[in-house]
Amino acid sequence: MAFTGEFSRDWAWLPEGLLHSILEKLVALPDYVRFSVVCKSWLSVAVLRRRLNTTIHNQIPLLILPPRNTGSSDQRNSLYSVTDKREYNFKIAISDKKRIAGSSHGWLFAVEEHKDLVLINPFTRGTIRLPPIVPLPKIGFEKVDFRTLVEYKVVKASLTADPILFPNDYAVVAIYGSSRKLAYIKSGDKSWRFLNIRHQFFYDFLSYRGLIYVVDRSSMVVSIDISDSNLSSSSSVVKVVVPRKSDRPKATYIVESSAGDLMLIHRYIVRSGYGEKRTSTFRIFKLQFSSSGEAERVELESLGGDTLFLSDNHSMAVFASNFPGCRPNSIYFLDPSFMIGQYAAFMSNDLWIFSFDDYSLKRL
């Protein structure tokens, strides 16, 4: 028996289960996008998996570079890949009157000089404007004293979910002020909610399995359930997960590994002969949780196949073998001692890599 005509395949009607299996194998975001534009049925499956948070694996973060020619009319920032070592032909318009205070789920957090916190999606051009955490007196920015401005400053901000996928079910969490306090605002709220926690000066936080995990400068970890609105008086909502430690590193980051474990990353500094401070080494701790929800710090000698990307505005882990050019068992980081001014996280070109293979530091 022979076929006389061309055998045609209707790719649009592949079984949904097979499409989900294909998506699960796709790691790089460009491949995921190509899958989504094949046809409407493939797009609907891709959107569904994104809503279920089972699709997009952690991607290699991109650096935002300042404009090349400060004297030209084109004052847009560009994106740079540290693993591909190439600049993408994609421009982001960020006013010099805005300071970036974080990035999350593809959104940037821009803090205006004396106004609101603005979420900017550089790909969709969408914006979400939030009220200031600490309202300033209406007497003109130039007349507000320095202490008020410091208390207003948003140090770090992050999203619990993507507002595009979950427009009615997301929250913005922020560390703000000279005491590095914590506040959050839910979608639809008109004002921020503040957390009355005795021990403050928080350094980093992470949304993890429905809770917010926050670490302070003494490496104490606190879990917060923001689904409960009575945060100031309910002892069951704010819980100490890891008690204080006597060892105080220069900075502590909290990151979720590619395997889903919570890790604390300690960064230590050393002072050079010229009085300059720079990063000297890192230590990693895995949080080993008990049935009560408390955790013990277990020091690790290696990141295994993971690679970490650390900065004051956003930190994350990826499984290195999924991304060619990414060095496993290493930390890519921007050293704050080499950053300049309030735009430090994005204005410095000094990127470093720390390897746990030989505890070496290399300037990229």
UniProtKB/TrEMBL annotation:
Family matches, as SUPFAM superfamilies: F-box domain
Alphabetical list of Gene3D superfamilies matching this protein: 1.20.1280.50
Organism taxonomic ancestry: Eukaryota, Viridiplantae, Streptophyta, Embryophyta, Tracheophyta
Residues of the KIB1-4 beta-propeller domain: 79-343
Pfam families: Beta-prop_KIB1-4, F-box
Domain F-box: 12-46
Top-level taxon: Eukaryota
Matches recorded under InterPro entries: F-box-like_dom_sf, F-box_BR-signaling, F-box_dom, KIB1-4_b-propeller
Record-linked PANTHER family: OS07G0183000 PROTEIN-RELATED, PROTEIN, PUTATIVE (DUF295)-RELATED
Descriptive protein name: F-box domain-containing protein
